[in-house]
Amino acid sequence: MAPILLNTMGTDHSDYIEEEVVHVKNPHLDSMEEDILYHFDLGTKTHNLPEMFGDIKFVCVGGSANRMRSFAQFIHQELGLPGDVADIMDICAGTDRYSMYKVGPVLSISHGMGVPSISIMLHEMIKLLHHARCRDVNLFRIGTSGGVGLAPGTVVITDKAVDSFFQPQFEQVVLGKVIIRSTELDKGLAEELLQCSTEIPNLPTAIGNTMCTHDFYEGQGRLDGALCSFSTEEKLEYLHKAYEAGVRNIEMESTVFAAMCHVCGLKAAVVCVTLLNRFEGDQINTPHEVLLEYQQRPQWLVSHFIKKRLGLIQ
Amino acid sequence: MAPILLNTMGTDHSDYIEEEVVHVKNPHLDSMEEDILYHFDLGTKTHNLPEMFGDIKFVCVGGSANRMRSFAQFIHQELGLPGDVADIMDICAGTDRYSMYKVGPVLSISHGMGVPSISIMLHEMIKLLHHARCRDVNLFRIGTSGGVGLAPGTVVITDKAVDSFFQPQFEQVVLGKVIIRSTELDKGLAEELLQCSTEIPNLPTAIGNTMCTHDFYEGQGRLDGALCSFSTEEKLEYLHKAYEAGVRNIEMESTVFAAMCHVCGLKAAVVCVTLLNRFEGDQINTPHEVLLEYQQRPQWLVSHFIKKRLGLIQ
């Protein structure tokens, strides 16, 4: 195992081809003397980013800071890395906006809830990978979601990330003008993940569209928010339309994640577990221990993928 | 001081008029046997919400969990309450989605970054106030922002919360349909806060419109994101248009905060400090200690307001 990891952690990238470098799409960045990644509490003058992050090959992101710390500890064990998991420190400890953990070639970052929160993280993470001169990076969002017609605990690999109108697009406002971006994800990565899921026992997995909303209650047709102006029937009609459009789960970050990775040429996948079946209810009342187990499922899948890629398993 | 606080903390609200109760706008809630406030890790069956929260009169919210803990400790000292500030515990310790601290009649809650993140918190917070049968509650968002034509460190009391097109409205998608909501804030509260600002030395304060965007980089016309497709001139043109429309600062939560409070009949105000003047740059490179001091300024203003309302100062 050691020589394989050493390969991925080396700093000599001369054997890689230029196309696989992480690109930013901003001509202004080159002329900046310093780049402060404010919400990470990192910067190009204060930190040696190539030395700290140059060997990163897998970036895994998820909403909860605690969950992304757990994932870092889990992947440390899975990769058989030396040292104590308790010593894995939050690289962004100087701020409470996001948490970040590095474990060998894997970076684990929290992004909070919703499109704006993950978008700030993505801007700074993509710049980080660029400044660190990372190459051949795969990105995974490992999250939680509401299921549509699926048993709770099902892992959904996203085919298309769609908006509230079931369209595979993301609306970005730039200087007061609306720009539409494609939310295309990497087909190969999704298929490879689906193959991995068949190699793990007791991991119910589906591939389908993921609807990304900007609101957890009204926007997802929940009847239990502080505001609700629709009936149970209208709610179910909307969810059935979503199901007919291929939607199998609902969360709050996938469209901007897919859109930004697509623009920057980064291979990305979304893997979310369903915590409930929205045809059957709105409240998450499953026992805490069961929910914790569900939340580990996307981690198992992505960990399996990473170990295969690193040649640790066949 | 003690008798005044006891008045506000009493559980006998029989002398209040019915109109001042916190209203939810959801007919389904009454028929629910239990309401689990999932992202707070609280519920109507597991917690005695009227006993825990019935005396709340002031709810203060802000993005950062650390900052809202600091605010709780600060207001504890300001109100001269008994006990050690180190004993103020996070009520939502069972989850890392939000942090919540209660100090006498003041509730301090973090909401993360962006409209979706604060909207989940607002739904559950408004339901919490409703279940706890709170009355006469004032809400304050105390946050950070980018200034437009103002010196860094200026406190902006929001007149109108406007969107990226400078309109005082919030677009909410409900079951795939777009609904427009007013972002009207309480005029009286804003005026009372402005009066308070004149009573505090060295607190530069302005009243103006606050623009709420769904993105920190492209959406706010920053040239330093991973993506940027516009020139310095186009950026400045947009910011000047914003200034002409009365915008004095830019942040990422005010429209939905104003809209949801307005629908539920809650008196609300937005008080954000500017960390930089966007006419002069995009990066936040002010020393950490200076930023920390800036971030305390909205807290001083709201604390002064609360102390006046409680009769602790004239």
Topology overview:
The structure is a homodimer of 314-residue chains.
Chain A: H1 2-9, E1 36-37, E2 42-43, H2 49-53, E3 58-62, H3 65-78, E4 100-103, E5 106-110, H4 115-131, E6 138-147, E7 155-162, E8 169-174, E9 177-182, H5 187-198, E10 205-212, H6 232-244, E11 247-251, H7 254-263, E12 267-277, H8 288-309
Parallel strand pairs in A: 3-5, 3-6, 6-12, 7-10, 10-11
Antiparallel strand pairs in A: 1-2, 4-5, 6-11, 7-12, 8-9
Structure description:
The structure is a homodimer of 314-residue chains. Chain A has 314 residues and is an alpha/beta fold. Chain A has a single domain (4-309), classed as Rossmann fold (3-Layer(aba) Sandwich). Helices cover 32% and strands 23% of the residues of chain A. Chain A contains eight helices and twelve strands. Chain A has a five-stranded mixed beta barrel, surrounded by four helices. In chain A, strands 1-2 form a two-stranded antiparallel ribbon. A two-stranded antiparallel ribbon of chain A has the order 8-9. In chain A, helix 3 (65-78) packs across helix 8 and helix 5 crosses helix 8. Chain A is globular, with a radius of gyration of 19 Å. Residues 1-18 of chain A have low confidence and may be disordered. Chains A and B meet through helix 4, strand 8 and helix 6 of A and helix 4, strand 8 and helix 6 of B.
